[in-house]
Each structure stands twice: as C-alpha cells, then as structure tokens.
Amino acid sequence: MKTTTRLKEMINAPDILVMYPAHDALSARIAEQANAKAVTVGGFAASGVLLGQPDSSQLTATELAKFYEGIYASVDIPVFVDAGYRLRRRDQRDSYRERLRACRGCRIVY
Length: 110
Fold this sequence. Notes:
By secondary structure, this protein is α/β, with parallel strands linked by helices. It is built from 5 helices and 4 strands; from the N terminus they run αβαβααβαβ. The protein is globular and about 35 Å long. The two termini are 25 Å apart.
C-alpha cells in the first residue's frame, strides 16, 4: 500500500491519529523508532533548522521542498506537511508539487 494511501486511511479512521512533530530528518527517525504512525512538519521547523529564525516566509517553495525531501527520505512512515499560506499562488503550488512528486507519504495542507 502506498504511504499516501496509508496516511489517508489513518486520518479518516475513527481512532485519533497522533502525529509526532518533526523538525528535521533525525527527529523524524527518532519518532519512527518510538513507534510513531506518522510525523508532521511545517514551515516553522524548516525556518528554525535552516535559518535559526521564526517562520516569516523567508524560504522559497523550492527550499522548503528540498528540506521536506530529506525528511521523507529518512523514514518509512507517512509525513504530513503543513505548507502554509505562502503557497497559495498557483505557480508556487505547481512548482512545490513538482519537487515533491518523488516523495512518498506527503499530504500537503494549504
């Protein structure tokens, strides 16, 4: 079963899905080893890890996608991404989705 399908089933299940927050690939792996069913990551984590700054839309969609790709590559559990409001423009969304096409288990929330 695809990871995206697995994540969708977990979200739609009657049980509450607890997704561990991950701020980088290492914390995602630790969550996976602690038997997390899924992890969640957002722009605040990316800005904090990459820039040491709060999330104030300083990273481009490509930089965010590359950051998330590293997290996806490090785990076999689904990764839930809160892409935030900065990806509202169609060209940004299309660029972002293009970069994430190779990633598994991605559920992008705008």
